[in-house]
Amino acid sequence: MGKSHAACMGLVIDLPAIAANWNALAARAPGARAAAVVKADAYGLGADRVAPALYAAGARDFFVALASEGQAIRPLLPDDAQIFVLSGHMEGADLSGLIPVLNSPEQFFRDRALRPKGAFGIQLDSGMNRLGLEPGEWAAIRTEALAAGPALVMSHLACADEPDHPANAQQLAAFRAMTEGVTAPRSLAATGGILLGPEYHFDLLRPGIGLYGGQPYADARPVVTLALPVIQTREVKPGESVGYGYAWAAQRVSRVATVAAGYADGLARALAREGGLKLWAGDIAVPVIGRISMDLITVDVTDLPDVPATLEVLNPRQGVDDLAALSGTIGYEILTSLGRRYERTWL
Ligand SMILES: *Cc1c(COP(=O)(O)O)cnc(C)c1O
């Protein structure tokens, strides 16, 4: 047994690091209020833990995608927390205690008919063409909508993770034009937009991925450690193969460890495609070999002086964006894919 297994099994989520990232992003925009985006179960890390921790750190505004996600955290937050629902007022949604961000004239009229006194926000489309009112639609309802006192008027940037992309300035200009004279709080920036600079900040920031340690917020404190228990080790002789398809064969007398996680736990087969995936025993990296199975991963631990009880796949040396690069995706998808079978611990 090595000394490196002393840490923890499973997925360890560093709530103080999330709070520190929230504070650091908020500090980039001293004139604005910082909200927290906790949709998709706080990017897979547990909205029931993350939202109260961020409330304790000072956040009073939260964003979720669906009303059901909002209802799940509403009882966990004091009354002065505002929970915005980005999908707006969908038919049949239970919006009690929540603030729908209305995305279309249809949603606006439905909401005003069903919740005439209920708080609401408005999302405008500044170019992304995903959600929100287009300029003509906004012009048609603007007077009525503003008279009803929206809690927020917002839009979303499509290319904020590419600072030089011309769409950023175009969307900023479109948002400015559509919100000229609006006195309600305005919001344009998610994590990427915060980093673009003060013109993008307006009144309310909506960071998500940066809180959880992902790009484009390069200065983020790492948030997740994922340690996989070693189930078994064996010796493999030269010429013998390991795993499905006999995809790896030993060149030397090798020690192979089998750990308890696989593609059903969000560690996609594509991670091992180019042979670049490593697990960590303390400071030492060891290569994943063969194919990733549904529940199992095999690792060449021949070069370890001894085999620890767990091997890490996510740690400060290998973060979600490193995994994303290996499998051709983004850190957001790595986080939100993390499986439900890991033992989760919140620091
Ligand atoms: C997901 C989302 C955010 C958060 O974006 P990050 O890039 O994770 O910071 C903010 N606003 C909207 C509308 C979103 O959909």
Q: What would you report as the Rg, rounded to the nearest angstrom?
A: 23 Å
Fraction in helix = 25-40%
- The stretches of 5 or more residues where confidence is low (pLDDT under 50) are 1-7
Total beta strands: 19
**Could you give a short account of the major beta sheet?**
8 strands, mixed
Short characterization:
The protein has 347 residues and is of the alpha/beta class.
Mind explaining what this structure looks like?
The structure is a single chain. With 347 residues, the chain is an alpha/beta fold. The protein has helices spanning 15-27, 39-43, 47-57, 67-73, 105-114, 135-147, 166-179, 191-196, 320-327, 331-337; strands spanning 10-13, 33-34, 36-37, 61-64, 82-85, 99-102, 121-123, 152-154, 186-187, 204-205, 224-236, 241-242, 248-249, 254-259, 278-281, 284-289, 297-300, 310-314, 344-346. The strands form 4 sheets. Strands 1, 11, 14, 15, 16, 17, 18 and 19 form an 8-stranded mixed sheet that branches. A 7-stranded parallel sheet has the order 3-4-5-6-7-8-9. α1 crosses α3 (47-57) and α9 (320-327) crosses α10. 46% of the residues are buried. Bound molecules: pyridoxal-5'-phosphate. The site of pyridoxal-5'-phosphate has 12 residues, from α8.
Topology:
Elements: E1 10-13, H1 15-27, E2 33-34, E3 36-37, H2 39-43, H3 47-57, E4 61-64, H4 67-73, E5 82-85, E6 99-102, H5 105-114, E7 121-123, H6 135-147, E8 152-154, H7 166-179, E9 186-187, H8 191-196, E10 204-205, E11 224-236, E12 241-242, E13 248-249, E14 254-259, E15 278-281, E16 284-289, E17 297-300, E18 310-314, H9 320-327, H10 331-337, E19 344-346
Parallel strand pairs: 1-19, 2-10, 3-4, 4-5, 5-6, 6-7, 7-8, 8-9
Antiparallel strand pairs: 1-11, 11-14, 11-18, 12-13, 14-17, 15-16, 16-17
Helix pairs in contact: 1-3, 9-10
Bound molecules: pyridoxal-5'-phosphate (PLP).
The site of pyridoxal-5'-phosphate has 12 residues, from helix 8.
